[in-house]
Amino acid sequence: MADMTGPFTNARAQAIATAWIRTNDHLHAAAFIGGSAATVSPDTLYDPTSDIDCYLVIDGPPPPGKIGKVIVDDVLLDVSWLPWSHVETARTNAVIASLLNFGRVIHDPTGRLEAIQLEIQGSFATPAAIWLRLEDMRQRIRAGLTADTFDLPQPEQMMNWLFPATLATHLPLIAACVPLTVRKRFLATKQVTTSEVYEELLSLYGFADVTREQTQQWLDLTDRIFSENAALVETSSRFWAGDIREDARAIAIGGSQQLIEAGLHREALYWIIATCSRCLVVRADAGEVPSAFLSNYHAMLAELALLTPDHRDIKSTAILDWIDTA
Hints:
The protein is of the alpha+beta class. It has helices at 10-23, 84-88, 94-102, 112-123, 127-145, 154-165, 170-175, 185-190, 195-204, 212-228, 249-252, 254-261, 265-285, 291-303, 309-323, and strands at 30-34, 52-58, 68-72, 75-83, 104-107. It is 52% helix and 9% strand. A hairpin with a 2-residue loop joins β3 and β4 (75-83).
């Protein structure tokens, strides 16, 4: 039982998440905690720039929409539905295999989830299992980078390119059998690759030569748009809108600031671009004129050679070439 009166440790935060999972009103057959929360030391202090990923496993298709961000006793949970059909095919799904291998089962009355987890864990580091996960990730990248999104507003085009493009960072993580991650994917990859490989990877996105000062300016821009969006995001129907709500500021803005201050400004760029693009998409959805921010946003993308479809096509070609040899 975690100490609920002493320092706010990861064990205490996970105990809060566990209690919510076991008592919430959302019907589910099983549940587990995934992401970084499942792998951090329970005795270290809880980091408010990270949320706790909670997965509710259900029979049949998930209900419309995502439960999303939930604050419980000062702990931010990120709650998602996960159909049994996805769990049962986890062996060939790089993301879910990682979640289950490193996750912590919280609710499993039939033992069905733990049985699948044990199966995944038993073969996770075998060459055959690694190959399946690498191929799944390569297919995700290829599908994302060949999708036609040119009819969408520019910030949405950028967002739809960025997420699959940066999945290339997951290939070294899969090969090293370490957890996959979202916001800190570049930092995680830096820790398992040589400096030569990592610099090559950064250069695929235009990140290699960006300075700390530039990154700070772009985070400050994102912070201003984030603040302007406080009311708009509350009515947004985007499934990721919870990531740019005010109660997620510690992660969306604070987490990037933390990386910059640690000398990891290049590792912060991905989430800064993602957050800034998402904020502008929400403004466009709400009919707000984004012109006050667009010039600076465009300047950021131009500096990274990501502004136009032609720019991104050049980078996509380089990324697709890179993943075939990674």
